[in-house]
Amino acid sequence: MISAVKGMRDLFSLEGKVAVVTGASSGIGRHFVDVYLDAGARVIAISRTVGDLDQHPEFGTRVSHVVADLADSEQVQSAAQSIGRVTDRVDVLVNAAGLNPRLSADAMTEADWRQTLDLNLTAPFLLTRALIGLLKTSGSGRVIHIASLQSLRAFPNGMAYGATKGGIAQLTRAMAVEWSSQGVNVNAIAPGFFRTPLTEAVFNDIETAEKLASQTCLGRNGKLSDLTGPLIFLSTEASCYVTGQLLFVDGGFTAK
Q1: Residue range of the domain that includes 231
Q2: pLDDT tens digits for 75-105?
Q3: Pick the catalytic residue: 161, 193, 194, 253?
């Protein structure tokens, strides 16, 4: 029994691993930074601003920050180079940075469209490709994209965001085909409705938030802690035979 428990702990262990998280100063990305630190990993956080990361007691030791606007392809490459200067391997890359302009097609400008695609879809491709050598060096690299209900469903005022999240679903499968045989598994977490800065407008409308909760099987919207287990699973040896998959963490929203 003791050896079985030890084996289970090893299966879900992130002790000493190196995790790179984008969108790391707020929302889901910020939560993931804390999850990885609590699990014993070293974190390289990428975001446009440091947010409250510099208040973390591990800042400057087990958590470091790279400033980058990932909607700019040159800054994506610069961020990858910065990571390469401070580590010789990356065990997990989480592409959590995202933008949802929540505009109708008529109101959306070409600049709005391009910025959403650049951050939500192009940046995950470019950053993963730039770090793939470090992920292969790990021997058990993990890439985790953040997909969405809109990878599968369409919502009002979500044309640009939905297009990018549909693209993330296919990017996940295509990257799995490309790199899984070389030791890098690629999967995506598709959250339901969670209160973050990206969804603040939705949750400020109490009637809308309650309606969304009623559409789930569990009868509630998500809490950030609901994402912790799925993240650990997809980041560790526990998911060694899982690749190219979208894991919906939505309380059963897509089941109804």
Answers
A1: 2-255
A2: 999 999 999 999 999 999 999 999 999 999 9
A3: 161
